[in-house]
Amino acid sequence: MPDQSTPPTRGTVRTLARILPFVRPYLGRTVTSLFVYVALTMVSLSVPVVLQWIIDGPLTTGDARQVWPAAGIVLGLGIAEGLLIMVRRFLVLTPSTHIEANMRNALYAKLQDLPVAFHDRWQSGQLLSRSMSDLSTIRRWLAFGVILLVGNVVVIVVGFGILFTWSWQLALVFIIASIPMWVVGFRFEHRYSLVSRRAQDQQGDLATTVEESVHGIRVLKAFGRGKHSLENFLRQAEELRGTELEKARSIAGLWLWLLLIPDVAFALSLLGGVVLAASGQLTVGGLIAFFAAAAVLRWPIESIGWLLSMTFETRTAVERVFEVLDEPNPIRDPEHPSTVAEPRGRLVFENVHFRYQDSPPSVPDLLDDVVLEVEPGETMALVGLTGSGKTTLTALATRLYDVTGGRVLLDGVDIRELTRDELRARIAMAFEEATLFSASVRENVLLGRPELDLDSPEADAVLAEALEIAQADFVERLPLSADTTIGEEGLSLSGGQRQRIALARAIAARPSVLVLDDPLSALDVDTEARVEAGLRRVLASTTALVVAHRPSTVMLADRVALLENGRITDVGRHSELLARNEHYRYVISSLDEDRETEHEEQEVIA
Ligand SMILES: Nc1ncnc2c1ncn2[C@@H]1O[C@H](COP(=O)(O)OP(=O)(O)OP(=O)(O)O)[C@@H](O)[C@H]1O
């Protein structure tokens, strides 16, 4: 993640301009509402002009006939002002919400597209706060911040022009007295950008803490760490409060000047105005109109401060959103993709090297020249000590990560030459940690079959078969059977039930290669035996690479590959390896021990 303490590198305008592609479709409406707002303030500014004309004209000459048309003009201006306010509100309503929705969709699509390596590095709370609160900040700024800012600057410039025509001396006094305000505003920018960035990052960290503690609520409760977690949360919340206070203090400092300076400017101009009127250089009408116009200009001048702070906050939000959108994705589809002409399911790891991006240079590659050939229809078990890289090796087959050296070939084609859609249709995975989505069992199981109509008889058949092989008969006993919503928002399932649904999902994808990362670990012995019998039927026609943590999973395989020090050091039948390979015997005996400990634990619990 980017360093939070570094000052922003791009200028505010250049950073904000990055949202232009999203704004472009709604540019017409946004610019129109800007013009309407400017017109609105011009109407307000013209009232003093009419005022001056009435005072210096009909009122001075006593010509009553001209008072009525003048009053009519003032009334007309009032009505025009009301209508323009209505039109502006109507115009700004929809574009900003559309822009926000489009940006959110783009961000979500990007998050889906980015590789696992990106998600390893980024905290989920940071991504959450960027896709929610930062985008809302951008929407609010587009809805009125930018319009008021640009509109008010235009009004201030035009207003000063009008003041000049009435009395250049007074206008000069007013402008010179206002200069310190601009200086304060610009000095404020740098400081505020840093604090506002820090606050937004801290909000992301806080969201991560909430998300993690909600996810891990059971562990926290079981270990009695709720209090510790609360303390951690309070500390972060306190830090955020401190930063928000710092923000509020710097805004308060700005406000002090923004309120004080126009007052001083007003007072000085008033003084000058009285002197000029007394010496006959300014009419009474001119003097009153001057102050009426200055009063109209007061709000635009005062508003510049918070509009600037809003703009800088939006700049930070845009920066944070684009940090994700700009993230390069090294795992892309090739420009000219190949395809597997005759899918048979031959999976080959050819001199494969891999190291995680954050592993120190002094550490050798985690996978260091892996050579492994899994023949079509064969079931290959992957065995190795814990932490030897078995899961990592399976992740390379579906390009969750890309190899850092060598190649992975599917039916002779480098998997990087296939589109990711084709690759993931050909190779399906089931993980030890079964992730289910808040959707029905049916939707979860048929996730890898987007071409199927979920309610079709064919989908029913695929679903029933997959659930049967995975021994997920408990689904029938759910309140709405396969249409019951499960996952985070739905019915809670046991670890073993979740694993069986995840396994059914991999089976239902009907891939040519099935990659199973210890998908039976949460099952009891009987269920495991039944699932294995079902799997044997599937695996007879499908190539499978199965990470094995139990001797029974090894028995399921035709051959076993031993992963040792980043390499496949032996491949053969279980009995052959037992007979000839000491390290294999050691690994298997440690699996046996794990299994016995598990049994003992189950007995103690029973
Ligand atoms: N996303 C990651 N980023 C950095 N290092 C990782 C990441 N995932 C795993 N590792 C490291 O890579 C090594 C191999 O992990 P891996 O999960 O592939 O081993 P494994 O053989 O499957 O282990 P186990 O049998 O315990 O499941 C470990 O030292 C682990 O700390």
Automatic annotation (TrEMBL):
Its main location: membrane. InterPro entries: AAA+_ATPase, ABC1_TM_dom, ABC1_TM_sf, ABC_transporter-like_ATP-bd, ABC_transporter-like_CS, P-loop_NTPase, Type_1_exporter. Residues 31-310 form the ABC transmembrane type-1 domain. Gene3D superfamilies: ABC transporter type 1, transmembrane domain, P-loop containing nucleotide triphosphate hydrolases. It is a multi-pass membrane protein. SMART domains: AAA (SM00382). The chain crosses the membrane at residues 34-55, 67-87, 141-164, 170-188, 254-276, 282-301. PANTHER family: ATP-BINDING CASSETTE SUB-FAMILY B MEMBER 10, MITOCHONDRIAL (PTHR43394:SF1), ATP-DEPENDENT PERMEASE MDL1, MITOCHONDRIAL (PTHR43394). Residues 347-590 form the ABC transporter domain. This is ABC transporter. The keyword Glycosyltransferase does not apply. Keywords: ATP-binding, Membrane, Nucleotide-binding, Transmembrane, Transmembrane helix. Coiled coil: none annotated. It comes from Homoserinibacter gongjuensis. The keyword DNA-binding does not apply. It holds the Pfam family ABC_tran. It is found in: Cell membrane.
